[in-house]
Amino acid sequence: MSAPPRNTTRYVICPVGEIAPGDRRIVEIAGRSIGVFNIHGRYYAIRNLCPHQGAPLCRGRLTGTALPSRPGEYHWGREGEIIRCPWHGWEFDVTTGKSLFNPHKMKVKNYEVMIEAAEGDDPSLETYDVRLERDEVVLYL
Ligand code: FES
Q1: I want to staple 48 with a disulfide (CB 3.0 to 4.6 A). Which of 33, 78, 117, 134 is the partner?
Q2: Can you give the CATH number for the domain in which 75 is found?
Q3: Mean pLDDT across the chain, nearest whole number?
């Protein structure tokens, strides 16, 4: 587990088991709406505000994208890692916040998500499976 960022406030989102792979939770933190996603067992957080015209981006559909390939070939991949804005369909990579069509200039704010032991956990329990149920999804803002 890495150290929490300096000069930030810790926000516990929920126990790890409450956001299933492929699912998300939208939370209000410090006046911001933020979507926390479980993508293939890893957690990511992005602002619930599309940089195009302000739609609730995190309510969009999770999908994949066409992967780089040779002419005449079509390969689909990254299923569940791309979110499509519910208003006009712009697509963003949930793992980075970058847009697919203009990743160097268009981005939705993303946040680091950490998994931490719930307060009161005994670190010696780390090797037991039950430990996962007691971990929490945490954001620092
Ligand atoms: S508001 Fe998101 S694509 Fe237009």
Answers
A1: 33
A2: 2.102.10.10
A3: 88
Q: Is residue 2 part of a domain?
A: no
Asked if 120 and 114 count as a contact pair (C-beta separation under 8 A), the reply is no
pLDDT category of residue 1 using cuts at 50, 70 and 90:
low
Closest ligand 1 atom to the C-alpha of 57? 2
Which ligand 1 atom is nearest residue 60's CA?
2
pLDDT band at 8 (very low <50, low <70, confident <90, very high): confident
Name the closest-CA residue to atom 1, ligand 1.
53
| Residue 7: per-residue pLDDT | 80
Q: Which run of H or of E encompasses 73?
A: none
Q: Phi/psi at 58 (nearest 5 deg)?
A: -70, -5
Q: Which atom of ligand 1 is nearest to the CA of 86?
A: 2
pLDDT of residue 120: 61
Q: Is residue 99 part of a domain?
A: yes
From the CA of 118, how far away is ligand 1's center (Å)? 37
Q: Is 3 among the domain residues? A: no
